[in-house]
Amino acid sequence: MKSISVNDLAALGDVAPIVDVREDAEFAEIRVPGAQSIPLSRFVQSLAEVPASGTIYVMCAAGGRSSQATAYLEEHGYDAVNVTGGITEWHRGGHPVNRG
């Protein structure tokens, strides 16, 4: 499975599509600006919402749920990359977030 650090992801800029697989309440609390929410609890049923082309960066709180979603996407032919450390490391690293 491919993975990327939050700092390397941030260096890619706004062009990197991020899918956040945390649950709705978690996403509402804090998120990466521009990230798309597709909670892991309904991920399989919502696969049509995942961008069909290009590299997709998958994030959760720390990396566990996103690694599950990344593996699933890879099995289905997507170019998916797990974001290690998730939103926890993203925020800790001083990268921009939206709240509320």
Automatic annotation (TrEMBL):
PROSITE patterns: RHODANESE_3
All copies of domain Rhodanese, residue ranges: 12-99
Pfam families reported for this sequence: Rhodanese (PF00581)
InterPro entries for this protein: GlpE_sulfurtransferase, Rhodanese-like_dom, Rhodanese-like_dom_sf
Entries under Gene3D superfamilies matching the protein: Rhodanese-like domain
Superkingdom of the organism of origin: Bacteria
CDD domains the record matches: RHOD (cd00158)
Protein known as: Rhodanese-like domain-containing protein
Protein species of origin: Arthrobacter oryzae
